[in-house]
Design brief:
Strand 30 and strand 31 form a beta hairpin. This protein is globular. The strands form nine sheets. An eight-stranded mixed beta sheet has the order 32-33-35-34-36-37-38-39, with helices on both faces. Strands 3, 4, 5, 6 and 7 form a five-stranded antiparallel beta sheet that branches. The protein has a four-stranded antiparallel beta sheet with strand order 8-9-10-11, with no helix packed on it. It is built from twelve helices and 39 strands. The protein is 19% helix and 33% strand. Helix 3 packs across helix 11. The protein is of the alpha+beta class.
Length: 706
């Protein structure tokens, strides 16, 4: 055994020594920011559709996959992931008209299939829409579906190769036949049915379709489409011809009496909300015109509106608003603000279902529409719930409960008996009793207590010998809740420790927690994550030679900034689809919408702050960087791949140490949503293999077969 391990270590060293990164051409490009000259030698990589960039991508992938191909257990890891992912995955059922629907992936399908149960939840399911048949390689996904009020029609959105651009089609529910309707260039849109058509959001078609994945998305418009007519005849309903960074959302109350309009814009922490009474055919009435708080209509109660808002209540509350007296001083508290953050509210069967966050786990409370408390819904485990959808006349509603070692279970809640019964349990070859989840609270640099979940096999000795995987996000008011992921079992069953640090910038403790990691306080996010790593090392869960870190999107920024500041803490780093150039992110696609969280280099004070932590601009000439595997995709039009391209080019240029610094560029994939299962399995196999290989660890199931 020792001989085998020594051989593996020597082979690893030899593989690294043989790495020759592609020589990435440098230009003399510079920019002047308020008198400060900043070089940008890899600006040309922002043109992700040029032949020159395509050649660079090919060369980088050749080096990366050449390296990965030499890892002897990589295929075994992929096979194990495939075994673990091969189990049926259901969503909770939902009703549209007289029919019921659910999604199901029977195991290894690239995309989940939508099934219909006609007339009854007990009816035999039949395939309604199978996205796997929309493309030969599984890269076209179903990005959303909305049914007409009577359930007769379904308008669905598709995404190709993971792009945020959407095409909308309409299907007759009874016959499953497509109508002639086809909508192009929709983006960041819902679908709201009214009458013989629906509202949707779109942008103008790009003047140069070659730039559709990178050009800034500006001047969003709202259109109304009448069934059976060409898109060219759609009626323009809303636009802002002055502000290019204004977005819209259109909704209806369940009884279709009130139409709602939300507005959101660049550098805003919330949204404005307007409402129109269609019964009286009145004008739009502003409920809140500022963009400083979150606010949305839950539904109406007669001629008044139940509204969620964070206005004057950072943790959220529910208020009753009379549209004839809409001033905030006239609002009536229905669910006053609590110490816990209110994460979602819905109405089913004339009951309010309120989901609160308590130390990053959900609690669910049922109230009458006037706010009177009725009962709490007991949950089988501390974890994350989703669901509680339905209509005002429904007696039942469904919800899903999950946690790190608790595979998703769907429950049916009876509003009359106030009881939950198990509706469907995930069947997977995994024994949760072999693992334990603990939550700790550790001090950050400024003394703030940060929660962290730690998952591992029962009975391990805390001697610092265990490989650990630390995940974080920290931004955009997004909380990282306990959820079950089958791919994580591969890490845990090999004795690995998995940890999630619930760092500032998210919504774990309401808006105050979010704002503590925004703009000129962004360094708190990195300090929190660094402190999480120090805790895991100090408490002997692991040590720096066995610690891997991962973050995606805004979390990719987290990883890039963290390993610049404390490269000595980590052995392996996985910055995925990250925001890495903090001076230019606002210039691409929807990047301008992130200015509220990050600030902008267009502001002199914010420029200086951004430049101090921007991953691309703070890579140092040092030999201390961990092994780095950057992951991105060629159709990512959320965080354009140029961020990762420029980052890895700079890292390969400056870093001269022994660890590999590579980039894995997926083709026909985007930011992550709708990625085919086959591609996800391949990516996780490569990430785990890269991690173990650089830690000098061979998974035990390979050793057992040698």
């Amino acid at each position: 055994m020792r001989t085998l391990l020594l051989l593996l270590v020597l082979t690893t060293a030899a593989a690294v020594a043989q790495l020759k990164y592609p020589v990435t051409e440098r230009s003399a490009q510079t920019d002047n920011y308020f008198g400060t000259t900043v070089p940008d030698p890899y600006r040309w990589l922002e043109d992700d559709r040029s032949e020159k960039t395509a050649e660079w991508v090919q060369k980088q992938n050749a080096v990366t996959f050449g390296y990965l191909d030499k890892i002897p257990f990589r295929e075994k890891v992929r096979n194990r992931l495939t075994q673990l992912m091969n189990y049926p995955r259901y969503t909770a059922p939902f009703r549209a008209g007289k029919n019921w629907f659910h999604y199901l992936n029977d195991g290894l399908q690239n995309q989940s299939v939508l099934y219909i149960m006609r007339g009854s939840l007990d009816a035999k399911p039949e395939v309604f829409l199978d996205p796997n048949k929309l493309s030969t390689d599984g890269t076209t996904s179903l990005a959303g579906i909305t049914f007409s009020k009577d359930g007769r029609y379904a308008a669905y959105q598709i995404s190709k190769a993971g792009s945020d651009w959407r095409e909308i089609y309409v299907m007759d529910v009874k016959t499953k036949k497509l109508l002639s309707d086809r909508i192009e260039w929709a983006k960041f849109t819902g679908i709201t049915w009214r009458g013989n058509g629906f509202f949707y959001n779109r942008y103008d078609a790009p003047k140069d379709t070659g730039s559709k994945l990178s050009a800034s998305n500006e001047f969003q418009k709202v259109y109304y489409h009448v069934l059976g007519t060409p898109q060219a005849k759609d009626e323009l309903m809303m636009q802002d011809t002055v502000n290019p960074h204004m977005g819209f959302g259109i909704g209806l109350t369940e009884d279709e009496r009130f139409m709602t309009m939300t507005k959101w814009q660049r550098n805003a922490n919330g949204n404005a909300l307007f409402v129109r009474d269609l019964k009286t055919k009145g004008d739009w009435v502003p409920l809140l015109e500022s963009f400083d708080d979150d606010i949305y209509v839950i539904d109406n109660v007669g001629d008044k509106l139940l509204v969620f808002t964070s206005h004057g209540s950072p943790n959220g509350r529910v208020v009753l608003i009379d549209p004839l007296k809409p001033a905030p001083g006239q609002w009536k508290n229905i669910l006053p603000e609590r110490k816990q953050a209110l994460t979602s509210v819905s109405i089913v069967g004339d009951k309010l279902f309120a989901v609160y966050m308590q130390d990053v786990s959900h609690r669910v409370y049922v109230h009458a529409l006037d706010g009177r408390f009725e009962n709490e819904i007991p949950l089988e485990t501390l974890g994350t719930v989703a669901g509680f959808g339905g209509e005002r006349t429904d007696r039942y509603t469904f919800y899903t409960l999950t946690s790190f070692t608790y595979p998703s279970v769907i429950f049916r809640y009876d509003l009359k008996t106030k009881q939950s019964t198990m509706f469907r349990k995930t069947q997977i070859d995994f024994n949760p009793q072999n693992f334990v989840t603990t939550q700790v609270f550790y001090p950050s640099k400024d003394g703030t207590k940060i929660p962290m979940f730690i998952v591992h096999r029962k009975g391990i000795r805390l001697d610092g010998s265990h490989p650990a995987w630390l995940y974080g996000y920290g931004g955009f008011n997004v909380s990282i809740n306990p959820t079950f992921t089958a791919s994580r079992i591969v890490w845990l069953e090999q004795g690995g420790i998995f940890a999630v640090a619930n760092i500032r910038g998210g919504s774990e403790y309401g808006e105050a927690w979010h704002q503590a990691g925004m703009k000129l306080k962004k360094q708190n996010v990195f300090d929190d994550f660094i402190a999480a790593a120090e805790y895991l090392i100090r408490e002997k869960y692991t040590d720096p030679s066995r610690l891997a870190i991962e973050g995606r999107s805004n979390g990719g920024l987290l990883i890039g900034a963290t390993i610049n500041q404390r490269p000595d803490l980590f052995k392996v780093a996985h910055p995925a689809v990250g925001v890495m150039d903090m001076l230019r992110f606002q210039k691409f696609t929807i990047g301008w919408a992130w200015v509220n969280d990050y600030g902008s280099s267009d502001d002199s004070v914010q420029f200086e702050y951004l430049r101090r932590y921007s991953p691309v601009h703070n890579i140092r000439d040092t030999t201390k960087y961990p092994a780095v595997l950057v992951t991105t995709a060629d159709h990512d039009d959320r965080v354009v791949p140029a961020h990762s391209f420029k980052y890895i080019s700079t890292l390969q240029e400056k870093y001269k140490g022994p660890n590999p610094v590579l980039i894995r560029i997926e083709t026909s994939a985007g930011h992550g949503t709708g990625k085919p299962l086959s591609k996800s399995i391949e990516e996780w196999a490569d990430m785990y293999s890269f991690t173990w290989w650089n830690m000098g660890i061979t998974p035990k199931y390979l050793l057992e077969q040698l």
